[in-house]
Amino acid sequence: MSYESPTPPTELPTDVVDTLDDYSPKLLQQVAQYAEELAEYREREARLAEESDEEAIEERPEDLPDDVPGKATITTKEINDNRYYYWQWRDGDKIKSKYKGPVNPDE
């Protein structure tokens, strides 16, 4: 951990940097968590859109529950410093999720 103030990425707009400079450490942590979740959501959206365009049908995984469609993917969510796997898939305009289990740190 450095004792110097971090340098913002050059791609980050100046108004965003100025706004973040005024935030408390707690609020910055909340912004960071939200930004991470938003990035994961958008990556998942793009991946699901790409996968829905593919016509190849893959085999259904053995551990896929009956009420989860074969097009579902596994994502990781962090809740209270614990990581969990979830099945996620698109249902029309919505993203649906179903709990799969905790992430095994030994994997």
Widest beta sheet: strand line-up: 1-2-3
Average the pLDDT over all residues and give the rounded result: 84
- The helix/strand class is alpha+beta
The main pleated sheet reads as:
3 strands, antiparallel
What would you call the shape?
A: elongated
> Can you tell me the number of structural domains?
1
* Helix-strand string: HHEEE
- The percent range for helix content is 25-40%
Low-confidence stretches: none
Radius of gyration over all CA atoms, rounded: 18 Å
**Helical stretch count?**
2
Strand content: 15-25%
Report how far apart the termini are: 28 Å
What's the short version?
With 107 residues, this protein is α+β, with helices and mostly antiparallel strands.
Overview of the molecule:
This protein is 35% helix and 24% strand. With 107 residues, it is of the alpha+beta class. The protein has one domain. A 3-stranded antiparallel sheet has the order 1-2-3. The two termini are 28 Å apart.
Blueprint (SSEs and pairs):
Layout: H1 14-21, H2 25-53, E1 73-79, E2 82-91, E3 94-102
Antiparallel strand pairs: 1-2, 2-3
Key attributes of the depicted protein:
3 strands, alpha+beta, 107 residues, three-stranded antiparallel beta sheet, single chain, 2 helices
